[in-house]
Amino acid sequence: MSYVSVYENRTPRSKGVAMAVAVHALIIAGAMAMPEIVVPEKLKGTINAFSVKVQKQPEPVIEKKKPEIAIGPPTKQTLPERPTNIDRPDPFVSVNNYGNIDIRGGSGGLGDEFRIDPIKIAPDPVIVDARLNPRYAENFQPRYPAGLLRREQEGEVSVRVLVGTDGRVKDIQLLESPHEDFWNATRKQALAKWRFTAATRDGKLIESWMTLKVRFEING
Q1: Domains (range + CATH), the chain
Q2: In what order do the strands lie in the sheet with 92-95?
Q3: φ/ψ (deg, to 5) at 168
């Protein structure tokens, strides 16, 4: 059976030709827009291949939990018994009737005995100052210097005297005087006539310094 194609004698349409040309143009434009593909040159030299051993990661160390220790209530500690064949008492400290401290030391009371006397604190001393002996009070005032008396000049003399254990003045020092004649009259009278009751320390006579004032006045 034979047949003849009906398309062989057909004239191509202009619309179809245009579409074909447009498709080819798009393909060529897309190819031109693609980036250039660089083909690497042929590798030179020898390529050595070898195997690499992968190190095994260490396993994590897991710390074992420590066992808990149960702590019970505190136990009462018992003291060793005192030997029965020793007559002396255990170590102790006691105070006797005299206020002394006795210490018996050593194991089981076998050590030496020590006696510690209590520390005695001395009381403050009792001091009684020297004072004018009333029996010699009328001898205290010195004679008025004649020249100062005529001029009717008055004044006051301050002195410091050392009173001995016998009540006499052993030394005298001038502190203040308005005139030298007042000082000389006072010094002479003090060394010759002044008498005191000596100072005492815990009942014992001692020397002591004292300050006195002598007033020179003219009675009307």
Answers
A1: 89-121 (no CATH), 127-216 (3.30.2420.10)
A2: 92-95, 101-104, 113-116
A3: -90, 160
